[in-house]
Design goal:
The structure is a homodimer of 384-residue chains. Chain A is of the alpha/beta class and 384 residues long. Chain A has two domains: 9-16 and 273-379, Aspartate Aminotransferase, domain 1; 20-269, Type I PLP-dependent aspartate aminotransferase-like (Major domain) (Aspartate Aminotransferase, domain 2, 3-Layer(aba) Sandwich), CATH 3.40.640.10. Helices cover 39% and strands 15% of the residues of chain A. Chain A is built from 13 helices and 14 strands. The first copy, chain A, starts with 8 loop residues before the first strand and ends in a 5-residue tail after the last helix. In chain A, 55% of the residues are buried. Chains A and B meet through helix 1, helix 3, helix 4 and helix 9 of A and helix 1, helix 3, helix 4 and helix 9 of B.
């Protein structure tokens, strides 16, 4: 039995449903941020993140800051590039535009390589772009939450290392870390940034990053100081290193409760092989996508290999808008999200399937949601 | 009976002890950040902040972002000044240096007006500085957590309005909002920034600000865009306005659990007149300071009017260092903090007395801590 009061299942692309033990850790009694019990907890949490990102290179550096996932963009833009530098942003939806806007606010020139809605930039286009201009960073949204488009990281990294080896690869993994396969070392990634409230299964409030030794070298050799303060690794690097070495340290007060919750969730996640976790998210996603297809509905990403495994975007049938169907789902205890991509927001809905709703065999959230979607569509007059 | 497990009383200058109901709110079940229940909760929270800061001017603008208190400095530095501008930082300890460093990282010239340790810049010195140069902002640390020095805001504001009326007044209220008297409208303040984990009584993870209409006008008439992204009010202003109007809105995912905890704590705080809250913090502080004096010990701020009401800094007797006394206190279930001000860190300890440890009549944290301090000093051979 869950210790949580009965409530609708949150099946949006984050925040997700949380495990009881994680929510209990959120209510941890007060502790000093520099006392041994919390320092040990934070240190272990940072070490566990290395396992989650599958990196054994000791030069890799994890960061956990209080903030939204968005703060990860600021950390990339203020620490790894300098004003006037050029970056290439691969665009698969809303979050490409926003990441580019973040770079611009720091005085960095962001060139976007855009694909039609539901598609992603192809390797030959990316190769052409990388050959035309020198870019300090290439960014890719692993899963764009506005479209459900999944990007392919391994072949992208191979291309970048072949064509433009000095270009750092920064992955926006907000909607992918914890449910999509990511091999930080094997795939030679330089930054993977994420947030707590999606497949990591912890309430919102933490910006989480893994940064490669190569990227840290770039940071350490920058000419100007980072043009931000709270997001500056000059301030945070010694703190993260000290916490992981179990030594007290202070720059700005971290959130012991959120870190305890992250510790609890990572302990649960790492108690099983990550391969199993990736596999069950994939299987569940296939089941959902099959059900959507059987209902006669289409997803925004057309090609199966471009479809995310932790969320599904669903085009609504002819002229139907999200407010016509979402309240019916809510009455059945299921919360989906409306559209987010500006050009098409009124035409589709989003179904998030990450974390305990997928991995906990005691939960029936997913089957219940599929059934609720069928019934709700029928209620509003949709016939397949 | 508390629902929290037995644990040492956290009596450092933040994080503080938390109320059971606040910790329970931290474990709130998942909700979408754009759904009506959370939107209403966040909207009410923003409105309650107006009462906490004692502002009825509708032009005043509250902000609540995921982050540490430090993020409030970034918000001031990136939104209210532009690179090349001059600001005057009144220095009463560690946090003056840090706020100045924050401005410099954004390309803003920060001039510090420093006082000897334990003292604060005097009005005639401030008047002289304001007449020598034109400053866009003057900042003051209401209570510097490294020294326990309390600054006087009312007369400072009168001076600034008389001598340099275009200079905005920004108050670092991290260690003062919720325990020291602050009258945002009456005292004509322009920014008061704070964090959740001190006298507001909510776990760390929220940066909380109140900004005047005059400061928002300055923001709206700036020439360049803010040179940050996550801290930019261009991104957050419409979100805060929408939440307070109970309309869903999205820029970056807020933390529903932390906002629920803030809602719970503000509801408790505002259920009684704020005057009572200020008074009980002052009375408790007087009691502690009297006990310290009776023990023959001295505080860092020499003048009683310069001594904070939510914390007390205590010079250790001849040659004693914090590690000699803090473990004895810990054995008695009391956690004080060591020194923070670099020049004197090894010579003093800090006793935080904010929030439920002070206001909840069922708690005996303060009396217990005073007794534990007396006994611990005797144990290590101190004789008055």
């Amino acid at each position: 039995m869950s210790t949580q009061p009965e409530h609708p299942a949150v099946l949006i692309p984050g925040p997700v449903e949380f495990d009881d033990a994680v929510l209990q850790a959120m209510g941890h009694y007060s502790e000093p941020h520099t006392g041994a019990p919390f320092v040990n907890c934070f240190g272990d949490t940072l070490s566990m993140l290395r396992k989650l990102f599958i990196t054994e290179d000791p030069a890799s550096q994890p960061f956990v800051l209080s903030g939204s996932g968005t703060l990860g963009w600021d950390q990339v833009a203020t620490n790894l590039v300098e004003p006037g530098d050029n970056v290439l942003v691969l665009h698969t939806g809303y979050f490409g535009d926003s990441f580019a806007d973040c770079f611009e606010s720091y005085g960095v020139n962001a060139t976007q390589l855009k694909a039609p809605i539901g598609d992603r930039p192809q390797l030959d286009e990316i190769e052409k772009a990388l050959k035309e201009k020198s870019y300090k960073i290439i960014t890719v949204t692993h899963v764009d939450t506005s479209t459900g488009v999944l990007s392919e990281l391994k072949s992208l990294s191979e291309l970048v290392h072949r064509v433009s080896p000095d270009t750092l690869i920064a992955v926006d993994g907000v909607c992918s870390v914890g449910c999509e396969e990511i091999r930080f070392d094997d795939w030679k990634l330089d930054v993977v940034l994420t947030a707590s409230q999606k497949a990591i299964g912890v309430p919102a409030g933490l910006s989480i990053l893994m940064v490669s030794g190569k990227a840290m070298d770039r940071f350490n050799s920058r000419k100007s100081r980072p043009n931000s303060y709270f997001a500056s690794w000059k301030n945070w690097l010694p703190i993260m290193q000290n916490y992981e070495a179990k030594k007290p340290s202070y720059f700005a007060t971290p959130s012991p409760q959120l870190v305890h919750a992250l510790h609890t969730s990572l302990t649960q996640i790492l108690s099983k092989p990550l391969e199993e976790r990736f596999a069950i998210h994939k299987e569940t996603s296939q089941k959902i996508k099959k059900a959507i297809t059987e209902l006669g509905l289409k997803q925004i990403p057309k090609k199966p290999e471009d479809q995310a495994n932790g969320m599904t975007t669903i085009w609504l049938p002819g002229g139907m808008a999200p407010p016509e169907i979402l309240p019916n789902l809510m009455k059945k205890g299921v919360i989906f999200a409306g559209g987010l991509h500006k050009e098409i927001a009124a035409k589709y809905i989003r179904f998030g399937h990450m974390g305990v709703s997928v991995t906990d065999p005691k939960r029936s959230d997913i089957d219940h949601a599929i059934a609720a979607l069928k019934t709700s569509l029928a209620e509003v007059g949709y016939k397949n």
